[in-house]
Amino acid sequence: MQKEVKKITTKVLQEMKIRGEKISALTAYDYTMAKILDEVGIEIILVGDSASNVICGYETTIPMTLEAMIYHGKAVVRAVKRALVVIDMPFGTYQGDSLEALKSAIKIMKKTGASAVKLEGGEEVKDSIKRIISAGIPVMGHLGLTPQSIHKFGSYAVRATNQNEAEKLINDAKLLEKLGCFAIVLEKIPAKLGEQISRILSIPTIGIGAGSKVDGQILVLHDMLGLTTDFSPRFLRRYLNLYDLIKIAIKNYINDVKNLNFPSEKEEY
Ligand code: KIV
Fold it and tell me: What is the pTM (predicted TM-score) of this model?
């Protein structure tokens, strides 16, 4: 008999925060990786618009389209039995007006079967967040370094290092909680601020470069597996060096083909 899987819901994440149990999250963009992540017990799988960088090779996340996010989202959802799947709303699909935002979010939810969407920003996008949540779609916020606004800020430096920016970030975080977001990603901010916000809020905070005193952590899968090599912020821990390992495997394959070592008799019909 198959064991019944207890699905991770936004309520489960909330309970984890109350218990003080840390939440683990990673990005995924395809079926095979999502299946591995889910099988080992990750709580949140984010279909991030970082697909723009690590899958498509763009410099920023700006070119990502709704169709592309839906394509990746569908593949991930097909693999997942337990984790909460969250899909990033790409640049240009929610900043214009709240009705457009709602339509984009509905499209994502209907076509992928995911459980939630994520979007970047605070006060500036409050109408969109409000409208999406009032349609019954769970929203994850994203504050601090918001890569879709890279051209406004001009760099990927640590955010909210001065009093004014820190105050705005705290106010935005409170606002997102008030609007009904179920969690907030805090990207590249001082650890002390990450801790302060996590203490103030009753919803979970998920940090990426926000220190250890937030409620959970997220990394981009290709970065933590060492598939990417040219991105090395301080917060990134590489758990593997897949770039080199894959190169070794492919080189061995090429040699075997050239030297008639592959296929062997055992590998023939
Ligand atoms: O797109 C993404 O991968 C993200 C994470 C960095 C949180 O937003």
Answer: 0.97
